[in-house]
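Running log. JK asked me to keep both predictions on one page so they can be read side by side. First protein, sequence followed by its tokens:
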Amino acid sequence: MNKIFVILLLILFAFPVQAGRSRANKTSTSYTEDDTIAEIRFGRNLAARILGKYKIWDNDKANDYVSTVGTGLAASTGRTDIRFLFAVLDTPDINAYAIPGGYIMITRGALEIMENEAQLAGVLAHEIAHINQRHVVKKLKIRGESNAFLASIGTAAGGGAVSGMKILNKLLDQAVEILFESGIDEKLEINSDVESIQTLVAVGYDWKSYTEYLRKINKKIFKDQRKVNSKTHPPIEERIEKIDSAVDDYDLTGHEGRKHKDRFHEYVKTR
């Protein structure tokens, strides 16, 4: 059992859920501290279910690196009422997952077709955008109103009332179906792409690397038998078209940023 997996288990189960200090922005409007606690508790259970399906990649160097890049992005653009955690799943599937409460998981298969850190940052920023905007939370209507939802999740997680367990399992099943099968919504995916580009520019990465990565995924759809994220995302061509349009609107075409290719290969491509 590797170090990252042990740390995740400790965070998922050993520590009490506490919502952090929120700041006034569009993502926190109308959401209370109880809502955030409900999101974190739900995400903790969903993350545990995913870790029961996929192992963490036994590569501490790569996991630490992904966590460092992701934490840096989240510190700049992520919500402050939650703690973001990152891990690499040991599967050749090409995808990444934004789990409510700040848990972001990317697959080994996704890393294998990347060429530089800017591409990694683009994917992580896309997932951070999903969590910032509470896309899964809103779709499943996860709220802590009157502490009813909090009580049901807390009871279920502790092995208590049957009704609480049924509520939790139903929502977890729906969340897994969203993450692995149906996706959230094409418009929301494209919005997260655009927010990712804005984040890359804001922190100084090369935004073009992200669209290059999307094109590589598109080639894999036709040339490889590995499962890719096409089932849960809009067509790649449409995503790139929308990104190009946003780049023109925000006058980012000539922006040059860093790629950090050598650093990426040092931490990810070698063991």
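And the second, directly underneath as requested:
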Amino acid sequence: MPKLDWMMLANYAEAPPGGGLVYIMGGAWDTITVQAPLEGAPPGAVAAIVGSLAIRLLFHSTEVDRDHKLEIVLQDLDGAEVAKIEGGIRVTKALGLPPGWEQGTNFVFPLTGLGLPKFGQYTFHLLVDGQHLGERPFRVLKGY
């Protein structure tokens, strides 16, 4: 089973293919403070995310070169699903890794414009092949 190395909310993140690097600006935030009612927000939203979710997964050599199912589920404090990202991933074995070395792979998911229906706490849950690997909580505060 792949392992979660880290998961971070950032104002901006980019993971160019083949580089093994993640470029992060304004990383590691956990609070959105809304200073005024949102104009032009999605219907029913009190806030909207401006940023990305950056993730680094570690794959054992037996887990590369095959398909995996990835899910990211956003839930509110009551456990209600607010949003979901689903997709397939396939990590190609990198040449030259030492035996037993876990292969790191970076993913960035743009979230800008994702409406949040209420103030309070939210959590992103990461699942790979149906197994929960970790979570990243954040909160939305009313600042007016």
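Observation for JK regarding the second prediction: The two ends are 45 Å apart (CA to CA).
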